[in-house]
Amino acid sequence: MKNVIYNYYDILVDELNKSDNNYFFYFNNELFLFYLVLNDISVVENIYKYVIENNIECFNIVLNKEGNLFADVDKKKYVLLKVRGILKYEVKFDEFKYYPVNSNGVNWGNLWGERLDYYEVQIRELGIKYQTVLNSFGMFSGLAENAILYFNMTMEKFNDMDSSVGIVHNRVKYPCYLVDYYNPVNYVIDYSIRDIAEYIKSYVVSDDFDIDNVVVLINRMNLNNLMFNLLYARLLYPTFYFDIFQLNSILLLQESP
């Protein structure tokens, strides 16, 4: 990987540290993160343009020596980020920032429905060898169908109300660390309640879970009926399960002849 970084960025790395699928190193006393892109490429490209034009606070994406965003490694795409601050600094919810965007939110009903159809195909073609996946899929697909129905009903009932759309995150976990929060590759444009919904879902399964804290977080946001019901729809959708399912389905496809 050191050779890849040198070939793309003309940076000689002395010591390279790996964390999951990502790499950290220091160069000229500055910390860099060589980060695997899991978000859609077109989304990353659009977000990059937006944060540059609007001076959004985030880690800087370092362009490669060809002036491109991405480095190709074994059919995967990476970006190089210049990091500021302490990677494991915990960003509390009251430190979350919101950058409004003049755009429509994502139609979660359509998106979740298309993904569910895709996952069902994967189950039929590959899941028969993996009984645990087969046993769990029905319950979580049922939750997803309820979330889709609730989202569609919400948009039909409250479509005349103001929605809040801006720069949010593909995923927010609890605890939320600076390395994830200010990573522009993790940014998306969507309804503002996306962050708090994903944060709560992660918090609920943590050892720190306290329902009173969840109530405080939601009350603090002062949501109208549309945004409150969108929050509920997002909470219903089992993001954590389908994230794992998607990663494992990729592995199953790689294993299949």
Brief account:
The protein is an alpha+beta fold. It is 48% helix and 16% strand. The model is unreliable at 251-257 (pLDDT under 50).
Topology:
Layout: H1 2-9, E1 17-19, E2 22-27, E3 30-36, H2 41-54, E4 60-62, E5 71-73, E6 76-83, E7 99-100, H3 108-126, H4 131-157, E8 165-169, H5 178-181, E9 187-191, H6 193-204, H7 211-221, H8 225-236, H9 239-255
Antiparallel strand pairs: 1-2, 2-3, 3-6, 4-6, 5-6, 7-8, 8-9
Number of strands: 9
Radius of gyration (CA) equals 20 Å
Mean pLDDT over the residues = 90
Q: In what range is the share of β-strand residues?
A: 15-25%
> Roughly what percent helix?
40-55%
What is the assembly state of the chains in this entry? single chain
Structural class: alpha+beta
Question: Span from first to last CA?
Answer: 29 Å
Biggest beta-sheet profile: 6 strands, antiparallel
Overall spatial form: globular
* Secondary-structure element order, N to C: HEEEHEEEEHHEHEHHHH
Number of helical regions = 9
Low-confidence stretches: 251-257
Please, could you describe this protein's structure?
- This protein is of the alpha+beta class and 257 residues long.
- The chain is built from 9 helices and 9 strands.
- Strands 1, 2, 3, 4, 5 and 6 form a 6-stranded antiparallel β-sheet that branches.
- A hairpin with a 2-residue loop joins strand 1 and strand 2.
- Helix 3 (108-126) packs antiparallel against helix 4 (131-157) and helix 4 packs antiparallel against helix 8.
